[in-house]
Amino acid sequence: xKKPLIVAISMLVLDQLTKYLVNSFVSFGDTVNVxxxxxxxxxxxxxxxxxxxxxxxxxxxxxxxxxxxxxxLSGLSLWLYKNWNKLNKLQQYSFCLIVAGGLGNLIDRLFxxxxxxxxxxGINSLRWPAFNIADSxxxxxxxxxxxxxxxxxxxxxx
Length: 158
Prior knowledge:
Elements: H1 3-25, E1 31-35, E2 41-48, H2 62-83, H3 89-112, E3 115-123, E4 126-127, H4 133-157
Antiparallel strand pairs: 1-2, 2-3, 3-4
Helix pairs in contact: 1-3, 2-3, 3-4
């Protein structure tokens, strides 16, 4: 099996395991402080019925959004399969992790009706929206794809 796929599957398993542990040991809506100084890092068990960063929270778009994401992930997976040998390693890892992150959150929508978010960072009352491992996979991978595009553009221009 190819390493990018192993990493992606590992991250999907880690995402689902951490969400299971949070649901098992932290009651919904509760917070457990991990780094107390300035209330910097907590585990907060919340649900996101919206899209990224809680946008469109509770707007009744869950079914439509579930179908859209399912089609998007299917298309990306098919494209990735067909273009695997044309992609460099960074692109292979990035797109595999985007699919893994999307699947992680799609599984939540299927089984919980919403995405389980729990990583809560901030300083006192200034908080970043809570997120999870799947969100991290998607965000980091999108940044890597954009960085790869910029590097390639600079190589062409020089």
